Automatic annotation (TrEMBL):
The keyword Transferase applies. This is Aspartate carbamoyltransferase. One of its GO terms (cellular component) is cytosol. The gene is pyrB. Pathway: Pyrimidine metabolism; UMP biosynthesis via de novo pathway; (S)-dihydroorotate from bicarbonate: step 2/3. Catalyzes the condensation of carbamoyl phosphate and aspartate to form carbamoyl aspartate and inorganic phosphate, the committed step in the de novo pyrimidine nucleotide biosynthesis pathway. It is an enzyme of class 2 (transferase). L-aspartate binds at K83, R165, R227.
Length: 308
């Protein structure tokens, strides 16, 4: 059984929890029909106060594939929060209808706040620039599927390492596993913040920082591309200057290893050219599918932990 009752941050996951969720997801992938009635009669609430395509729909699809049902909203403007209802009251209300809630909110710490008043488990589906732990589980399952192990990888992370919440969580989780090394590729202005570096690496020196994607290309087993997060910038002129910092196209892949994989949490803007999509190393649309399977596993594990 996993050690947590809610999933609020990826930090609270122990290595054993991750192994348990990933192993169950791998079992579901092998034999999905064996799990199609596991959540009969259960209801997932999806409270999305911020836009989403993958996270919301994969959660909903996950619950339906487990035999359960879904209630919720995809736009805060159709909820009573527009009348001034607090987040705590909204979540407490929905937890009277649902057995488990996945929520996305622009405020950092919103999922933690929700967990204090909810009468059911809360899954953080993104809270501002803070955390997106189910994206991390998606990424980890994808690595496990393609590489067969979560150890011994050189991972290149590219783009907006300052605001990219998926990068911060992925670094932390992959650093729990042995012998992983990291190449952090970002413009000076979007480097991994010092507080994240101190938190992730502590006394380990298993990373290098560079601004040069081409130089790193032949060294990585996993290339994790990210979008420059326009919505987190305070200055649009800075965004405009930085938005095209790294554009991965077919020609740049010439130096890459044959068994490298290219990941991206999506959505992309222009940082991966569409001519890369057909390259067998481009796995980002399969990554999307693994997101659904890992959320199936997470829903099962959290319901089990809360019924124990
Ligand atoms: N990766 C991700 O969180 O996508 P959405 O914003 O579409 O949910």
């Amino acid at each position: 059984m996993i050690s947590i009752k809610n999933l609020l941050t990826s930090e609270e996951l122990y290595k054993e929890d991750i192994d348990e969720i990933v192993n169950l997801a791998n079992d579901i992938i092998k034999s999905p029909l064996d799990f199609s009635n596991i959540c009969d009669g259960k209801i997932l609430g999806t409270l999305f106060f911020e836009p989403s395509t993958r996270t919301r729909l994969s959660f909903e699809s996950a619950m339906i594939r487990l035999g359960g049902s879904v209630v919720g909203f995809s736009d805060a403007n159709v909820s009573s929060s527009t009348k001034g209802e607090s987040l705590q009251d909204t979540v407490r209300t929905v937890s009277q209808y649902a057995d488990i809630i996945a929520m996305r909110h622009p405020q950092e710490g919103a999922a933690k706040l929700a967990s204090l008043t909810a009468d059911c488990p809360i899954i953080n589906a993104g809270d501002g620039g803070h955390q997106h732990p189910t994206q991390t589980l998606t990424d980890v399952l994808t690595i496990s599927q393609y590489k067969g192990t979560l150890e011994n990888h050189t991972i290149g992370l590219v783009g907006d390492l300052k605001y990219g919440r998926t990068v911060h969580s992925l670094l932390k989780v992959m650093n729990l596993f042995d012998n992983n090394n990291f190449i952090l590729i970002a413009p000076e202005e979007l480097k991994l913040p010092t507080y994240v570096k101190e938190d992730v690496f502590k006394d380990k020196h298993n990373y290098i920082e560079t601004t040069n994607l081409d130089e790193a290309m032949d060294k990585v087993d996993i290339l994790y591309m990210t979008r420059i997060q326009k919505e987190r910038f305070f200055s649009m002129s800075q965004y405009t200057r930085l938005k095209d910092s790294y554009i991965l196209d077919k020609s740049k892949l010439k130096k890459a290893r044959e068994d490298m994989i290219i990941m991206h949490p999506l959505p992309r803007v222009n940082e991966i050219s569409t001519d890369v999509d057909k390259d067998p190393r481009a796995v980002y649309f399969n990554q999307v599918k693994y997101g659904m399977y890992v959320r199936m596993a997470l829903i099962m594990k959290l319901l089990e932990a809360n019924n124990a």
